[in-house]
């Protein structure tokens, strides 16, 4: 996958890497200049150490003797000051004469700034130092001046030496630092590219997946596998999880549409068939009466389905409103169970209630919505319970962790049960645990939303082959 022009890699090169290179180059240049300046400053002590102050004092004394004079005294001093450096010259000044020693080029081409510093009246140290270019090369010069007295005038000795060795060392140092700079830049580029690519490639893959999902390809997944367990790997995993959830939701939505279509078509077909029968004048009255009952039942069924769809829309858009009032929750539960007694006999199923009519459970809630909760839960239990099975509804007032009373209502069936991995999904929109059972797949979703609005808790538990238990806990007044 190619890096996008103007993407993270190119921006990293233009900004971070460029600034890093400039800062590193500036640091390297500063280091070279500082070290070379240190070498030049140290040269002052080197040149100062060459001068034999005792010999210079002897030169001053001989200079004052008429029978010796300046030239002889200077020769004696230069002899005493013999140095192994063949690139060093010694110059003596007395204000009128100048004598140069080894390698001497005393033609005045080298600036005398150090000499002028040394003879300055305001200079108590009587020393001067200069570094610069002279005779076409880098040089250093040091001058020491002996103040005049009653016997001798101002005398000065000047040491001049070539800085070619220092310059050579500075060049070698600069080359070494340049090599280190290149090595550092190479390490920075290689490690930086590896780091940036470890981020860019997964992000590019995520971009591809999100585009494919936006285009309707819900089975798209991030294939990049980050090496490290960091935020990028977490992001890739979360995007894949999101894609899987979207794919699952899309599949459930399609199943829901198919189910709703079937749920609508079946009663409409039955109603149309019986209406044709009723219109037939020769039809038996008993058949007509049965047809009217079927039409009435199917109408109720369609009405309930439409109500579920409206509730789904309201809950999804947050437009559901409760009409709370103080009611006895046990009384509402008993009314709901009464609706299923006839159904239990008709379907040949055992319907048991473990509810004490003497108990009183006062709650602030919407009676219509609470009855909808109980009816939906019990209806689901009937749907999944086989012939001869048992549906049990129990209610008990219990203290909660805070010492307040709660009403615990449990509806348990003896159906096939639900696998643990599916249990938490039963309250999702459109989800159905069994595709062979009639229903829209939104009943438990609506139940969970109503329970939440009342500040209650919903808990599902199941063992495969032993049924499902739906428990709600309602805080009492």
Q: Whole-number radius of gyration?
A: 51 Å
Separation of the first and last Cα atoms: 63 Å
Which regions have little confidence, pLDDT < 50, spanning 5+ residues?
Answer: none
User: Strands of the biggest beta sheet: in what spatial order?
Assistant: 2-1-5-4-3
CATH topology category name of the largest domain: Heat Shock Protein 90
- Provide the β-strand percentage band: 15-25%
CATH H level of the largest domain: which superfamily?
Answer: Histidine kinase-like ATPase, C-terminal domain
Can you tell me the overall shape?
rod-shaped
CATH top level assignment of the largest domain: Alpha Beta
CATH level-two architecture of the largest domain: 2-Layer Sandwich
SSE-based structural type = alpha+beta
Share of residues in helices: 40-55%
The number of distinct helices, counting runs of at least 4 residues, comes to 12
Succession of helices and strands: HHHEEHEEEHHHEHHEEHEEHHEE
List keywords for this structure.
3 domains; 5-stranded antiparallel β-sheet; 477 residues; 12 strands; 5-stranded mixed β-sheet; single chain; Helix Hairpins; rod-shaped; alpha+beta; Beta-Lactamase
Overall description:
By secondary structure, the protein is of the alpha+beta class. It has three domains: 51-162, Beta-Lactamase (2-Layer Sandwich), CATH 3.30.450; 231-315, Helix Hairpins, CATH 1.10.287; 321-475, Histidine kinase-like ATPase, C-terminal domain (Heat Shock Protein 90, 2-Layer Sandwich). Helices cover 53% and strands 17% of the residues. It is built from twelve helices and twelve strands. The protein has a five-stranded antiparallel sheet with strand order 2-1-5-4-3. Strands 7-9-10-12-11 form a five-stranded mixed sheet. Strands 6-8 form a two-stranded antiparallel ribbon. A hairpin with a 4-residue loop joins strand 1 (88-93) and strand 2 (98-100). The radius of gyration is 51 Å and the shape is rod-shaped. The two termini are 63 Å apart.
């Amino acid at each position: 996958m190619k890096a996008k022009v103007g993407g993270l890699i190119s921006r990293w090169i233009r900004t971070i890497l460029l600034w890093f290179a400039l800062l590193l180059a500036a640091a390297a240049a500063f280091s070279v200049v500082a070290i070379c300046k240190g070498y030049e400053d140290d040269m002052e002590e080197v040149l100062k150490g060459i001068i034999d102050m005792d010999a210079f004092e002897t030169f001053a004394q001989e200079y004052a003797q008429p029978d010796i004079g300046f030239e002889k005294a200077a020769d004696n001093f230069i002899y005493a000051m013999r140095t192994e450096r063949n690139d060093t010259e010694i110059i003596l000044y007395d204000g009128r004469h100048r004598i140069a020693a080894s390698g001497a080029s005393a033609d005045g081409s080298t600036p005398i700034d150090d000499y002028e510093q040394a003879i300055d009246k305001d200079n108590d140290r009587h020393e001067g130092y200069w570094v610069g270019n002279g005779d076409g090369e880098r040089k250093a010069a040091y001058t020491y001046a002996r103040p005049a007295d009653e016997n001798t005038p101002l005398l000065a000795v000047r040491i001049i030496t070539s800085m070619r060795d220092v310059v050579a060392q500075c060049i070698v140092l600069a080359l070494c630092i340049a090599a280190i700079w290149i090595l550092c830049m190479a390490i920075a580029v290689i490690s930086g590219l590896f780091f940036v690519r470890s981020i860019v490639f997964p992000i590019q893959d995520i971009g591809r997946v999100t585009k494919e999902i936006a285009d309707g390809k819900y089975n798209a997944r991030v294939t990049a596998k980050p090496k490290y367990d960091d935020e990028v790997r977490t992001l890739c995993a979360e995007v894949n999880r999101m894609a899987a959830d979207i794919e699952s939701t899309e599949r459930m939505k399609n199943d829901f549409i198919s189910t709703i279509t079937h749920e609508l078509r079946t009663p409409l077909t039955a109603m149309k068939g019986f209406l044709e029968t009723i219109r037939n004048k020769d039809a038996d009255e008993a058949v007509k009466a049965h047809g009217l009952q079927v039409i009435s039942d199917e109408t109720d069924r369609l009405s309930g389905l439409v109500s579920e769809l409206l509730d789904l829309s309201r809950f999804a858009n947050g437009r559901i409103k409760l009409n709370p009032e103080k009611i006895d929750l046990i009384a509402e539960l008993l009314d709901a169970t009464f609706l299923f007694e006839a159904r239990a006999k008709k379907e040949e199923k055992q319907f048991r209630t473990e509810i004490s009519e003497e108990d009183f459970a006062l709650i602030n809630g919407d009676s219509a919505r609470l009855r909808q909760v109980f009816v939906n839960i019990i209806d689901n239990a009937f749907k999944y319970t086989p012939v001869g099975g048992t549906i049990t509804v129990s209610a008990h007032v219990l203290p909660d962790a805070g010492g307040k009373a709660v009403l615990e209502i449990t509806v348990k069936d003896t159906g096939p049960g639900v696998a643990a991995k599916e249990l938490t999904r039963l309250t999702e929109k459109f989800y159905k645990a069994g595709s062979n059972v009639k229903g829209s797949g939104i009943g438990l979703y609506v139940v969970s939303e109503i329970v939440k609005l009342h500040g209650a808790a919903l808990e599902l538990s199941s063992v495969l082959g032993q049924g499902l238990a739906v428990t709600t806990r309602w805080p009492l007044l």
